[in-house]
Amino acid sequence: MAEPAKSSAVVVVVGGGVAGAFVAKSLQSHAQVVLIEPKDYLEIPYGELRSKVEPLFAERTLIKHTDYLTDVRIINTCATGITEKEVLTEDGGSVTYDYLVIATGHVDSATRIRDERLEEFKQDNQKIESSRSILVIGGGPVGVELAAEIATDYPGKKVTLVHKGSRLLEFVGPKASKKVLDWLVSKKVDVLLNETVEVTSLEASSGTYTISSGEKITADCHFVCVGKRIGSGWLSHSFVKESLDDKGRLQVDKNLRVRGSQIVFAAGDITDVPEIKQGYLAQAHAMVIAKNIKLLINGSTESKLATYTANSSAPALVSLGRKGGVAQLPCFTVSGWLPAFIKSRDLFIGKVRKEIGLKA
After folding, report:
1. Residues in domain FAD/NAD(P)-binding (predicted)?
2. What is the mean pLDDT of residues 230-259?
3. Dist. CA 171–CA 153, nearest whole Å
């Protein structure tokens, strides 16, 4: 049977992270898809920290958008605003849409060119290699997993992790948090809770850092791993501004449409869906949105649209180097070989590559 003709409907996807990438990939054979994204590559975020200790790992985690979006118009620029018909871009241009998907996640300061990003990982690795002591600032998932990667691959280096909260990884339960803390301590990571540190250029050059209690820490280098702002600032003067909550997240309905709109959807970390923000859930958002846009293009009624239910008990997996990890599951929390087997060995990179049509 012949494939149905591709629709003339224009679907604009703003944001080329996991959520945006999967929406664009799923719709490219069904509609005229335009991806607006400043970077020329998709970075699978789960591989970022492994790439700092093993730069070659990034060859698999940084994927040129043109490698998997073979029938998508890609515009490498930032969106600066939207109207009810167009997306405005930083180069002064505009793109008209029939359907819009907003997937700008968190503010990202990474370079826009894949080769330059690869070079950044090499430089981070050289910084780690040349340092005897390393300060990690922030005890969320990024800080914890970076400290774990360094402690695993460079057991002779002194690693200090400073976190402002009373426990690590506040997005998981206390039991999982305690297991992570115990693992880090077992690897001789010095974990300082209820402390902050403001890094000045003078401190960074001298290698001496002052934490909020007044104690001084010496380290040859540091990595700042604190949370990033939601990437919704560009929407603050748009027609969807009333749909932004007090944290800057877009409020969405059960079909993942932005509140008050029939044709604007949102996916991933930028949404107010009450669940932990993890990549596999962003993929789930993308699949629901792609299905709904296909249905709308084909003239389906509202009642036929797919719905998304927040996964409030979604599993949380924290990688601790290559052979360790902690998994918080709905009924229990476990550490050791099981979460390591599930996530830590390859960090789901092969799985994601296969899902977008590439070799693992």
Report:
1. 11-284
2. 97
3. 26
Alpha helices (H) in the chain, listed in sequence order: 18-27, 48-53, 58-61, 65-68, 114-129, 141-153, 174-186, 201-206, 279-297, 337-339, 349-355
Under the phi-then-psi rule, with left for phi > 0, alpha for psi from -120 to 50, and beta for the rest, what region is 76? beta
What contacts 83, CB < 8 A, 6 or more positions away?
238, 239
Q: Of the candidates 268, 205, 243, 273, which has an alpha carbon nearest to the alpha carbon of residue 20?
A: 268
Rounded-to-integer distance, Cα 346 and Cα 42, Å: 17
Structure tokens at 5: 């003709």
Q: Is this model's pTM higher than 0.70 or not?
A: yes
Residue found under tokens 């830590």: 344
**Residue 69 pLDDT exceeds 60:** yes
Cβ neighbours of 42 (radius 10 Å): 27
Query: How are beta strands 133-137 and 99-102 bridged, if at all?
Result: unpaired
pLDDT of residue 205: 85
Q: What is the mean pLDDT of the chain?
A: 95
Who's near 148: CB < 8 A, 6+ residues apart? 183, 184, 187, 189, 319, 320, 321, 324
Beta bridge partners of 75: 36
Q: Which residue has the tokens 């359907």?
A: 99
* pLDDT of 2 strictly over 60: no
Give a three-class secondary structure readout of 137-173. ECCCHHHHHHHHHHHHHCCCCEEEEECCCCCCCCCCC
Q: Which two tokens stand for residue 289?
A: 């949105």
For 19-29, the pLDDT digits (tens) are 999 999 999 99
